[in-house]
Design goal:
The complex is a heterotrimer. By secondary structure, chain A is mainly α. In chain A, 78% of the residues lie in helices and 0% in strands. Helices cover 73% and strands 4% of the residues of chain B. Chain B has 26 helices and four strands. In chain B, helix 2 packs antiparallel against helix 3, helix 2 runs parallel beside helix 4 and helix 17 packs across helix 22. Chain C is an all-alpha fold. Chain C has seven helices and no strands. In chain C, helix 2 runs antiparallel to helix 3. Classes of the chains: A mainly alpha, B mainly alpha, C mainly alpha.
Chain lengths: 100, 641, 170
């Protein structure tokens, strides 16, 4: 049997790889995809818990997460589109208008 | 009951009316309101005096003023024998001064203001003497101090007058501080501040001590001395006498009313009123007597060489007040108050007479520049002479009886009593000398002023001479209520005061009494004789003496340099502290530092925080991740331990 | 003793880690999307491993089929050519990597000492009796009906929002 904590550690590793991608890449598309990576890692963890604790609630939660992830991806891409239209820039470290 | 309340309230009403409407409605006629009010008070006072003389005493609480825990103060009236005499003195002298001021202040642009202040002063003084608790007394006390400030600095555009007003008020505050402490101590240890309760319970404090700075002091002595501080300030005794000569900057009617008859006598009144407290402390009594005697001698010596006519009379007042305290200090409270009564009349007369002389001389104060005025101003001359005879203690006039009573009772007062008796007798001689010095230099001899002044010399108008005459009658006859048994009288006033002020023990024999009287008369006539020799027959003698004893002369002329001493020790350091410490450090550095520093601090803090907003999304995400790391560490690692 | 399930899991784990690393380090965004697609397939496989068939199907249809396609649409529409030439990582990238490493270190300890909570009633046999979809549907539409409706609202907002944000100014 595969122990539960292996799944959790796997989920943590993928989540942290997503964080690393968000914190270090310049391209906004890659940043968005790192976010999707993070969400998927969480999904893995939830489904694992659902299986090992024999409760359906984990899977229900995953359905909702996938829904929200879809909505957020759509809006995120719309933002990138309008950003590109106004600035012609695709790199996060060149957009710093809101600095105080 | 309403009669008694009206006595102080009438002048108050006159003040309110005059101060509000005087400038526009009454102007030159403002004196009518004031004079009517004071006359009403005078009539009521006479009626009240008659009632008290028949045996009635009024101690009445009108309404409850402050109720705060165990501190209950009512607004009330106490009219007993002591108050009744004071009412007569205050209202009669005030009335005469009001009438005098009509002529003296004629044409002054602050005419209505003068009368409103006079009314306010009369109200305050009446409140002081009719109070039946310490808080009301204190109110009247401060109010008369305030009116004194207003009236001394009446011609406020003159710098010396404004300064003198300030000086009077500030020096008074020193005394009032001690007085306030005394009131507080009475409340702390007795629990009430109305006279009835205080006098009933004061004997319970006998023998108790209070520890200050590691030493034990007798409680009643401390209280009595603190109360005496107030009297020292208000009645211009040493060391707080410095304000009275400078107070002569005020108009002469003010000097007559406030600095002769009424305000300065408030200290004597207070000591007499509190005689149950003072009698329980021998140390306090001796202090009062010695202070009075020393002040009396001190002021009399200064008066010997002054040339400003009002200043001489001012120092004379300080000296006579010393007499009154001398009396209180040996237990002869009745004699002290009797002297207060007679002194009011002859001193007010002296001042008003001096005012008349100044009026004729166009404001000239220097007696060296006067001379031979008796030809031009006979009424002034005769009344002034009567007053001087009275103050010198010539037998038959008012001053003789009261001064003699004091000296005889002082002689009976033990070792301290005999010492102050000697000093008092010496002062009597000096008083006679300098009083007649004024007479000879101002009214006899050749006129030594300018031709201009000589042309304008005239007798004063009736509004001014009438009060002089009335006061002269007082200076003559006021003493006749206290003719001692020795000389065939029944000492009516002594017996009158007995219920309130007690009667001191008299050990001496009739023979001793005749001796004391004889010595006083001899000293008085000696003083007058020497004065006549010096200033009438051989005027070169004083000049020679002045040159031979130049050091003594200069010290006396400079008032023993007390003012300069106070200036160096107190005033200059106060200014230095104000300028360098309070303004330089606390204001400029500390307060400004805080007021400017706090915004600057907030600003710099904000500046630093601003740097966090870089504008890069990934930096914000990085801070979120750091926060996540911190929380995880705290929860997962530290929380499990 | 390493059992067969553990071997399977080992494969999945290694593959998923490698693929996610490739996702974040790819230069061309299109490449990145394609690596992500492979990753999603592995995730779906892992779900099958965990008896969540419905979710595996949803993952493939929705995530791989819809979201990634949307991504590709937008990437290609915006025609980013100079992307291949520019730099990949921001200036302060070691900071991010260091932070991630520290968080991993912090998380590793508690997870390795994980204690399971109480078990619910949906055992594997009970789920296998009815199918996973049926059980999921029953729980979703009875206990979690309200969140379900709210989720539909979220999707509505997403539609409206995307239209508003991406609209070309007239």
């Amino acid at each position: 049997m595969v122990p539960l904590n292996w799944y959790i550690i796997l989920s943590a590793i993928i989540f942290l790889i997503g964080v690393a991608g968000f914190l270090t890449r310049r391209n906004v598309f890659i940043m968005l995809m790192s976010i999707e990576l993070m969400l998927n890692a969480v999904n893995i963890s939830l489904v694992a818990f659902s299986h090992y604790l024999q409760d359906m609630r984990g899977q229900i939660f995953v359905i909702f997460i996938i829904t929200v992830a879809a909505a957020e991806a759509a809006i995120g891409l719309a933002i990138i589109v309008s950003l590109f239209r106004n600035k012609q820039k695709m790199h996060a470290d060149e957009i710093a208008e809101m600095r105080g | 009951m309403i009669n008694y309340i009206l006595i102080p309230v009438l002048p108050l009403a006159a003040f309110v009316i005059n101060i509000i409407f005087g400038k526009f409605f009454f102007k030159e006629k403002s004196h009518w309101i004031a004079i009517l009010a004071v006359f009403g008070s005078f009539v009521l006072s006479v009626i009240t005096f008659a009632e008290v003389a028949a045996g009635k005493t009024i101690n009445y609480d009108a309404f409850s003023w402050i109720v705060s825990g165990s501190f209950n103060v009512s607004f009330g009236l106490l009219i007993d024998q002591l108050t009744a005499i004071m009412l007569i003195v205050v209202t009669s002298v005030s009335l005469l001064v009001h009438v005098y001021s009509v002529g003296y202040m004629h044409g002054d642009k602050g005419y209505y203001r003068f009368f409103s202040y006079l009314s306010l002063f009369t109200f305050s003084m009446l409140m002081l003497v009719t109070a039946n608790n310490l808080l009301q007394l204190y109110f009247g006390w401060e109010a008369v101090g305030l009116c004194s400030y207003f009236l001394i600095g009446f011609w406020y555009e003159k710098k010396s007058a404004a300064d003198a007003g300030k000086k009077a008020f500030i020096v008074n505050r020193f005394g009032d501080f001690g007085f306030g402490l005394g009131v507080i101590m009475i409340f702390l240890f007795i629990g009430a501040i109305n006279y009835t309760d205080i006098f009933a319970n004061i004997s319970t404090l006998q023998g108790k001590t209070i520890t200050m700075l590691g030493h034990d002091f007798d409680l009643i002595t401390v209280i009595a001395l603190l109360l005496f501080c107030g009297a020292v300030g208000k009645s211009a005794q040493i060391p707080l006498h410095v304000w009275l000569p400078d107070a002569m900057e005020g108009p002469t009617p003010v000097s007559a009313l406030i600095h002769a008859a009424t305000m300065v006598t408030a200290g004597v009144f207070m000591v007499a009123r509190f005689n149950p407290v003072f009698s329980l402390s021998e140390v306090a009594m001796n202090t009062v007597a010695i202070t009075g005697a020393v002040t009396s001698l001190f002021a009399a010596t200064i008066a010997l060489v002054q040339n400003d006519i009002k200043r001489i009379i001012a120092y004379s007042t300080v000296s006579q007040l010393g007499y009154m305290f001398l009396a209180c200090g040996v237990g002869a409270y009745g004699a002290g108050v009797f002297h207060l009564f007679t002194h009011a009349y002859f001193k007010a007369l002296l001042f008003l007479g001096a005012g008349s002389v100044m009026h004729a001389m166009g404001g000239e104060l220097d007696i060296q520049k006067m001379g031979g005025l008796r030809k031009y101003m006979p009424v002034t001359f005769w009344t002034f002479l009567i007053a001087s005879l009275s103050i010198a203690g010539v037998p038959g006039l008012a001053g003789f009886f009261s001064k003699d009573e004091i000296l005889w009772l002082a002689y009976n007062g033990g070792a301290v009593g005999k010492t102050v008796w000697l000093m008092g007798t010496l002062v009597a001689g000096l008083t006679a000398f300098y009083s007649f010095r004024i007479i000879y230099l101002a009214f006899f001899g050749k006129f030594r002023g300018t031709h201009e002044q000589e042309h304008h010399l005239h007798e004063s108008p009736t509004s001014m001479t009438l009060p002089l005459v009335v006061l002269a009658i007082g200076a003559l006859a006021a003493g006749w209520i206290g003719i001692p048994a020795l000389l065939g009288g029944n000492n009516w006033v002594g017996h009158f005061f007995e219920p309130v002020l007690g009667h001191p023990h008299v050990h001496g024999t009739h023979a001793e009494e005749w001796m004391v009287v004889g010595i006083s008369i001899a000293v008085a006539f000696t003083g007058i004789l020497i004065s006549t020799i010096f200033y009438l027959w051989k005027p070169q003698i004083p000049v020679l003496i002045g040159e031979k004893f130049k050091g003594v002369y200069t010290t006396l002329w400079n008032k023993y340099y007390v003012d300069e001493f106070y200036d160096r020790i107190i005033v200059q350091p106060a200014f230095w502290i104000a300028k360098n410490v309070l303004v330089g450090i606390t204001d400029a550095k500390i307060i400004e530092g805080i007021v400017n520093g706090v915004p600057k601090l907030i600003g710099s803090f904000g500046e630093k925080l601003r740097k966090l907003q870089t504008g890069y999304v990934q930096h914000y995400a990085l801070s979120m991740a750091i926060g996540l790391f911190v929380i995880l560490t705290l929860v997962l690692i530290a929380g499990t331990r | 003793m390493i059992t067969v399930p553990q071997l399977f899991f080992a494969y999945f784990a290694v593959a998923m880690t490698v693929l996610s690393l490739l996702v974040i380090t790819a230069k061309n965004p299109v490449n990145s999307v394609l690596w992500m697609l492979a990753l999603f397939f592995h995730i779906a496989g892992l779900y099958l491993f965990l008896n969540a068939e419905f979710l595996a199907a949803v993952q493939l249809i929705l995530y791989a089929g819809a979201i990634l396609v949307l991504f590709l649409f937008v990437i290609m529409m915006l025609n980013v050519k100079d992307e291949i030439i520019g730099k990949r990582f921001i200036k302060g990238w070691p900071v991010g990597i260091a932070l991630v490493m520290s968080i991993l270190a912090v998380i590793y300890f508690p997870i390795s000492r994980l204690i399971q909570g109480p078990a619910g009633q949906y055992t594997i046999e009970a789920i296998r009796a009815e199918t996973n979809s049926k059980v999921l549907g029953r729980v979703l539409y009875t206990d979690y009906l309200f969140p379900f409706e709210v989720a539909s609202l979220i999707l509505l907002i997403a539609i409206v929002g995307a239209m508003v944000l991406a609209k070309r100014r007239a």
